[in-house]
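tool_call: predict_structure(chain=1)
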Amino acid sequence: MKITLDIKDDVLQESEDVLNEQDLTLELAVQLFLQKIVKRGSIAWLFDNTSNNVNYTIMQSRHFPTFTANQDKTKNKMIKSRAIRLLRNEGYTIYKTSTFASKNSGANNFWANPSFDYLDEDWTLILNDWINNKLYLFNIPKGSIDSSELTPRADKSEVIDLQIMFSDSTFTDNRSNYSFLKFKVAEINY
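tool_result:
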């Protein structure tokens, strides 16, 4: 059976971002949602205060309840979907092809292994400085970096070994000495 849903573009994009981080498709998520409704015989579990370590307050609405998240210990934990949402809310463009890298807790850099194929697409790179609660946004137009300018990972030649030094105002990859500064679009605090 096919079902057609009318979903706001921003809600669809953000939900797909979250699902992609969990290696789930929207179709599978909907199937899981419906299976849980059948298994539980209700949707009361949606309003459970203990799910996901977030407390929800149900706001009054006759047909479609809305929720507000109360502050909890995970509030400042930045993940890709939240970073994208924050940047979009500030009016910045985020390309479909995107990479999110947090400051490495064991080293003084931002580390990621995006595919070399990303260089053939409009590519967004988001660096998360969780120490100073800051996001750096880079939008890299397709074809603006040649693959020979970046260093592949030693054990996986199809991916870039990207290690951008932390607190480096030129945002230089220490493996290839390539500076991403010219692609910097914004930095925002969170």
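agent: Residues 28 and 79 are 22 Å apart (CA to CA). Proceeding to next step.
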